[in-house]
Amino acid sequence: VQLQASGGGLVQAGGSLRLSCKASGAITSVFNSKAVAWFRQAPGKQRELVASSTRVGTTNYADSVNGRFTISRDNANKKTYLQMNSLKPEDTAIYYCNNYPDPSWPWGQGTLVTVSS
Asked: Which residues pair with 113 in a beta bridge?
């Protein structure tokens, strides 16, 4: 499996971005059977969980993004999305996707999100 995240970029505080992640090489039935999640890693910090979605679409969010971010998934195309609104400078990080709660796919390069104040 190769995780290909995209959609990052430079945005001003208060702006929005939509991240996408495709699990290339994953068997569709396997992807559909797993919960997926978005994680992020800011400079000098550990990777942290941002949002998760069960195989049936039940979602959970870190307190820091609850109400601003929305995770969704497209099982047919093995994709996961993260809609990010009202972005803050502290959201600046590299964003990654993987399965959850025990990430088992090789981590991709992620996509960099930079929020300017």
From this structure: 9, 93
Task: Say if residue 82's pLDDT is above 90.
Answer: yes
Confidence band (pLDDT; 50, 70, 90) for 64? very high
CA distance linking residue 12 with residue 31, whole number of Å: 34
Rounded-to-integer distance, Cα 31 and Cα 98, Å: 10
Q: Which helix (H) or strand (E) holds 31?
A: helix 28-33
Tell me how many degrees the CA angle 96-70-72 measures, rounded to the nearest 5.
75
Give me the pLDDT at residue 2, please. 94
**Alpha carbon distance 22, 46 (integer Å):** 23
Q: Is the pLDDT of residue 3 over 90?
A: yes
How many angstroms separate the CA atoms of 98 and 114, rounded?
A: 21
